[in-house]
Each structure stands twice: as structure tokens, then as C-alpha cells.
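User:
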Amino acid sequence: MIFSVTGSDAETLERNCMKKLTLMLFGILLASPAIAEKIDLTNDADPKGDVDVFNLSGDIEIIGWDRNEIRVTGTLGDDVEEFIFERDGKTTTIKVKVPSRTRGHKDYSSDLRIRVPKGSSIDVSGVSTDIEVEGVQGEQELNSVSGDIETEIFGADVDAQTVSGDVDVEGTNKVADVNLESVSGDITADGLSGEIRANTVSGDIDITHGDFSSARLETVNGDVNFVAVLRPKGRLDVETINGTVDIMFVGDVSAKFDIETFNGRIRNCFGPDAERTSKYAPGWELSFTEGDGNGHVTIATLNGGVRLCKE
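Assistant: Predicted structure:
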């Protein structure tokens, strides 16, 4: 079969092809992800000022440096309403603002890299946000709903809390008051000194290379590992519902010990052996005094054993 195309038919065919091509290109543009807005902003800052940061979704990385200024780089989500970066006296506010009312799927995910004077104190919060802090020597308050928190401590107090995520803290053996909390996640702390409180519902607690006057460690479903110095007149309190407790004291320890399990053995590498709470029950208990007994150690587990040793 032979087809012939007249002049008018050729023009019609050409127009139809152009329309289809235009629609195809338009569809490709709609399907392509929008390019996130990049930011690179700098403000003067107090060398020991306060920095408040809020980011609903995305990553927050904060790095301490030797300049008396704050630099923010990163990308903003397509549906972010406004980016706020302002200074009022000693306080600098950095905020990713989103609309108060939204419908449908929106892109608020923003990644921020923030450099602050190393002597700054910071207050950082987010919802679906990972938080990482490095080289900041002032006080830190870090909060996330769904995200991990990682930070360094240089002798100032730290409060780090997340609902669903891990908390990881590195210290420099300088005295600080530290509070670490997670509902669903592990807590890890290395090289801390002073006072620590660590609490998680579903997760392990791992405290190593520490030097404490007070430590309170609590978990519902998880193990507790503690390798540290307990100072004279120091206090260590450990509680877990379902999990084992492994305590390794570094150096001599002077304290009164009260240890009890409902269902689990107690193994003591120094001092007396544990006794059964009852010949009819699986629990064990151990009470004794080591050294001058000027400190106090209490350990309680429901389902899990306890190991007590010292280097």
C-alpha cells in the first residue's frame, strides 16, 4: 500500500508532532525534582553568645571555630516559607520557618551546616532531624523527635534528648553535668567526667573511660555497661527491667554496695558472693562494703544478671 502526503497534510502532521513534543517536554519538567535553594550567609557573633537553631526536618551540623562570626551554608526545602538568620545582642537565631497550615505532601527537608564561635552555647531542636555537634565548648541543649544526636563535651553542661534515635557523646574528661535521654535508641558516652544521667526505654547504655561523682543509668529493655572511675563519696545507681548489667570500676572503689536481681545471677569479682533471695525464687542479692564505704552503689534488675569487677 502506498501513502501520499499532500502539502496541507504535511503541515497538519508537523503541527501535531510539535504539540506532542511540547507536551512531552512539559511533562518531563513537571516530573523532574525542583532544585533546592542553596544558602551561604554570615553574621557577626558574640564569642561566648547564645545560638538558637530550629529545623523541622533534615540534618543540622554545628562546628565550633575561632572566628567571632556565624556562617550558615546548606540547602532549604522547596516548601520552606522563610529562613531566619538574625542577631539580637548576644543571641543569634537560626530558624527554618514552615507554614503553620499545610495540605498534602510538602518538602521542608533542609540541611544546615553552621559554624559558630567555639565558646558559644547552643540550643538546637528539630522534629525529623539528625544533630551533630563538633568543637562547641559552651553549654548545649539538643532535642530531636526522630533523629540521632552526636556531640562533643568540653566541660560545659549538656542536655541531649531524642525520642527515636541514638545519643552518642564524646568527652575530654572535663567536669560537666550531662543528661542523655532516648525512648527508642542506644546511649553511648565516652570520656565524660562529673555527673551523668542516662535514660532509655528501649536501648543499651554504654559508659566508658569516665570519671564520675554521680551516675544514674536506667533502661527498660536494654543492657548497661559501665567502665569508669567512681570518685570517693561517689554514687552509682543502675536500674533495668530486661537486660544485663556489667560494671567495671577503674582503680580502687570505696562504697557500700546494694545489689538485687529478681531473675538473674550476680557475679562479684571482688568481695563476697551473692546469696539467693529465697530458695523458692530465682532472685539474688548482695550487700557489702568496699574500702571506707563512703560512696554508694545500688543496682537492681528484674530480668538479667549482674557482673561486678574492677581493674
